[in-house]
Each structure stands twice: as C-alpha cells, then as structure tokens.
Write a structure and sequence with these properties.
This protein is mainly alpha-helical. It contains three helices and two strands.
C-alpha cells in the first residue's frame, strides 16, 4: 500500500492489455474477492490507482492509423 503507484493521484498509468494484471493487484491489495461487475471493478481500480489509467491496446482500437495486435509487432 505504500508503493508510489498505489493511492497516488498525481501519477498516471499507461499499460498494455492490463485488466487481468489490475485484477490480480486488486485482489492482493484488498485481500478479498474481485467485484462481480465491471462498474464495481472500475470503481475499485479508481480508488487504488486514480482516474488516469490508460490501456494502450484499448486506445489503439480508436486509432485511425490501423494499429492492431500486440507489442511484438513494434520491434
């Protein structure tokens, strides 16, 4: 809980395809089962990691440049 990434509203997080990773982190931090619904999960995510969490794989779907796939395509 004392890590700079947890409960630090001044930081933003950029990730790549990380919902499962955040699920595991939330489970470890709370020592409870994950929320059943998406809205509850996102609210828990906001409590621990703030409002500025960006998943680049999700954002790529809105790109007009035709980006798709995984990180291995960008070597």
């Amino acid at each position: 809980m004392s890590h700079v990434l947890v409960c630090n509203e001044s930081e933003s997080l950029e990730t790549f395809h990380s919902p499962y990773d955040f699920g595991y982190l939330l489970k470890i931090l709370t020592r409870r089962r994950l929320p059943d619904g998406l809205l509850e999960f996102l609210e828990s995510l906001k409590v621990f990691f703030g409002d500025d969490v960006y998943d680049m794989k999700h954002l790529m779907t809105f790109s007009r440049t035709g980006l798709y796939g995984g990180l291995d395509r960008f070597r």
